[in-house]
Design goal:
There is one protein chain. The chain is 50% helix and 10% strand. The chain has helices spanning 20-40, 42-57, 68-85, 116-123, 142-153, 168-171, 193-212, 229-243, 248-258, 261-271, and strands at 62-66, 92-96, 131-136, 157-162, 175-178. The model has no long low-confidence stretch (mean pLDDT 94). Helix 3 links the parallel strand 1 (62-66) and strand 2. The protein has two domains: 5-212, Rossmann fold (3-Layer(aba) Sandwich); 229-271. Helix 4 packs across helix 5 and helix 8 packs across helix 9 (248-258). Pfam families: GKRP_SIS_N. It comes from Parapedobacter pyrenivorans. This is N-acetylmuramic acid 6-phosphate etherase. Keywords: Carbohydrate metabolism, Lyase.
Length: 272
């Protein structure tokens, strides 16, 4: 049986007797260890991201497969990408236990379903051109593990993000990422340090991949979708900064005519 550090007793005792100041201080102390643990896993994470970049730049797709807090966090990351980076929907995807449309429902019983994830991947016509990344704090979630085994049988590259050493899910993954965050502040509450680690890793995967795919120039979101006034204003000011256009309304007119900062910059470059 694999070691499940995530279920080990908290090193903190008698929490109900502690003050608010004591509790938040101790939680903050625990959270500070997460970045250090991720640092140790950076070589693994680099291999996974390089594989994701290779697949997506060649026309493939990324599928996260997860349940519980980790699966829900992957949904939150993926839904931001079309707006932030102008990437077409369908390249980055999530197969969530119980369905992404039921994100707000805690369908933890769906973690034990060994058929749903692969069935959903088949509905999405997953192929060896794609990559599937399993999300599981324990490293044992049946919903995730079954999907990765099926991917292996069908020649589909896989990765994972887990928080226990030597887990079955890591063993089933082509590119495992193991971030051992240790016992939780409240015993077994993996939405805490494990969830924090997962959120940080999703940020690293999506941001680095978007940069590598050319969706960022310098340090700017030049492909941001102009979906509201705040983002449009940010994009206008970005265009003004990069082109030297001093007239706000003129810059805005060029931006709206071309649909993105990147396209507007190309237009200005061609006509200057």
């Amino acid at each position: 049986m694999n070691l499940r550090i995530t279920e080990s007793p908290s090193v903190h005792r008698h929490l109900e007797k502690k003050s608010v100041d004591e509790l938040i201080g101790l939680i903050n102390q625990e959270d500070q260890s997460v970045a250090t643990q991720i640092k140790g896993a950076l070589p693994q994470l680099s291999r996974l991201i390089n594989a994701i970049v290779e697949k997506t730049s060649a026309g493939g797709r990324l599928f996260y497969v997860g349940a519980g807090s980790g699966g829900r966090l992957s949904v939150l990351d993926v839904i931001e990408l079309p707006t932030t980076y102008g990437v077409p929907k369908g390249i980055f995807n999530v197969i969530l236990a119980g369905g992404a449309d039921r994100l707000v429902d805690a369908l933890e019983e769906k973690e034990d379903d060994t058929e749903e994830a692969w069935a959903k991947l088949q509905e999405a016509t997953v192929t060896p051109n794609d990559i599937v990344v399993g999300i599981s704090a324990s490293g044992t979630t049946p919903f995730v593990l079954a999907a990765l085994h099926q991917c292996e049988q069908h020649g589909i590259a896989t990765g994972c993000i887990v928080s226990n050493p030597d887990s079955p899910i890591a063993a089933a993954s082509t590119f495992p990422v193991e971030v051992i965050t240790g016992p939780e502040f409240v015993t077994g509450s993996t939405r805490m340090k494990c969830g924090t680690a997962q959120k940080m890793i999703f940020d690293m995967i999506s941001t680095t991949t978007m940069i590598q795919l050319g969706r960022v120039e310098d340090n700017s979101m030049v492909n941001v979708a102009l979906i509201n006034d705040k983002i449009t204003d940010r994009a206008v000011r970005m265009l003004m900064e990069k082109t030297g256009i001093a007239d706000y309304e003129a810059a805005k007119s060029i931006l709206l005519a071309h649909g993105s900062v990147k396209q507007a910059l190309e237009h200005v470059s061609r006509t200057s």
